[in-house]
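Journal club prep — side note

Before the paper discussion, L.F. wants everyone to see what a predicted structure for a comparable chain looks like in token form. Sequence:
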Amino acid sequence: MRARDFLILLLICLAWGYSNVLSKIVVGAWHVPPLFFAAVRFAVVVFATLPWLLPMPRPRLRVAMIGLLMGAGNFALLFIGLQTASPSSAAIVIQVGVPFTTLLSIVMLGERIHLRRGIGIALTLVGVVLVVWNPDGVALSAGLWFIVGAAFAGSLGAVMMKQVEDVAPLRFQAWVGLVSCLPLALGSALFERGQWASALAAGWPFVAAVLFAALVVSVMAHTSYYALIRRYEANLLAPLTLMTPLATIAFGVALTGDHLDRRMIAGATLALLGVLVVAMRARPKTALLAEREQA
């Protein structure tokens, strides 16, 4: 991966990590219904990306399915899970998306995992587990099962996106917002109560949270990530996004006073080492020979 793209991915993961903590505050502390929060978020996304909406990218059915998986399905399940799960436990459980993406990319795309990348994935997973581990372990509560579902939806959408060609990332984000907003709004109307009362009670901080989630996280971060998905193999990007749980824990320490000890520092170091191993893949021999010939 080029250094510039790796830096972009790092910034994306920082935005995602902050968004995880912010989303927990919205649905947990402010008691805003999760489907309503997701629907408002994607409504803002649609409004912001309206100039890029048409024409609809092809194949239309596949684009709509990917949009539902990576938008409505992923975020609805994530926000429902965050109502009861802590950001740290959610951050580690959602990393089952790494083996999900790896297995799906092998089955659906025919990609291959080499030893060096496998070692990097293992190091990063061990480091992330060490960061969030506690003497009682990580219990899969009902909320965390929703997080597992969110991970699978996001992984399946990411792998399916590799099968779609020539779709501008911003246009794709516009359609993710459109196909997600409508079913989320319908689901909120059918299954949730007191949506507007909760939003009004939270006040301007809720407005700021929605704008950050929609414009910074969805329009900027997710659009940039879609561009990276088109450029790199899905099972290369998946382990690198393990920087997101580290960012989630870091923001938790800085903003909510979460406890930081030597175990967490060691785990973070190990995880980042694994990320570095995955990112710094050996260059193909053909590329090295071409450079030598030019020299």
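L.F.'s comment for the group: Residues 282-295 have pLDDT under 50 and may be disordered. Keep this in mind when we get to the figures.
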